[in-house]
């Protein structure tokens, strides 16, 4: 009876967890949360079709309380991302079923955006537990029925077409040559305005309209090359915009610059004497005062 009986395995040495730790890759050091946490499924955190920005926004939205504002401008203020990138990420979440946005009209007439966040797209909504059979309550006054919200489709943005390029009244060969040379020479003054031959041919009528209105070539060159944006990605579109919007009016003539007559003052036009060609004022052509006097004396 002196043989030792082993009826339980020896205890594991301190510090071991019973799991084999990998020699490379990520090693999780997890602690159980007791407050302030959100449960996120691996179908979202490891989604292969969503960008990192979309996954991060989905986790952030699911962690917010009900009624929190999650507009594009509000999210752009919260995270260092542009409004365009955040809008694209929200569209990703809508396409994969994690988000649904709609426009609804409230009973007061105001239109608001209603956003539904799904932590597990495609899952059935939980059904309410059956109510126990009890004595029905006493009937009371019927509650005031609230009208159902009316879904309003989002307004479609209409992009106005750009204004047409100015055209000269008569595109002569001289005007066409001068306008084409001015456009091709712009790259000497601003290297980023290196236009293709097709762009020069397209913009030539607009510059010809400037020259037809007696605009000096230096004035045109300054208007097209001054204060260029950095970086300049579409030089032909920028020049088309400036040629169209900065077109000067035609120079006024001498008749346009003459001061208007004062009210109540009758201006008698000038006439040239038929005999001595001297200018005199009269409503009708004829002879000046001296020639009329000589004619009367001779008679």
At CATH's second level, what is the architecture of the domain at 42-117? Orthogonal Bundle
pLDDT average, as an integer? 82
SS-based class: mainly alpha
- Coarse shape: elongated
Distance between the termini: 181 Å
**Approximate strand percentage:** 5-15%
Spatially, the strands of the biggest sheet line up as 2-1-3
Output the CATH topology of the domain at 42-117: Arc Repressor Mutant, subunit A
Low-confidence stretches: 12-18
CA radius of gyration is: 43 Å
CATH class of the domain at 42-117: Mainly Alpha
Helix content: 25-40%
The strand count comes to 5
Supply the number of helical segments: 11
Order of helices and strands: HHHHEEEHHHHHHEEH
Q: What profile does the largest beta sheet have?
A: 3 strands, antiparallel
Structure explained in plain terms:
The chain contains eleven helices and five strands. With 299 residues, it is mainly alpha-helical. Among the domains are: 42-117, Arc Repressor Mutant, subunit A (Orthogonal Bundle), CATH 1.10.10; 173-245, no CATH class. The chain has a three-stranded antiparallel beta sheet with strand order 2-1-3. Strands 4-5 form a two-stranded antiparallel ribbon. Helix 2 packs across helix 4, helix 5 (173-184) packs across helix 7 (197-212) and helix 7 packs parallel to helix 9 (235-245). It is elongated.
Question: What is the gist of this entry?
Answer:
The chain is mainly alpha-helical. It has 11 helices and 5 strands, in the order H-H-H-H-E-E-E-H-H-H-H-H-H-E-E-H. The relative contact order is 0.06.
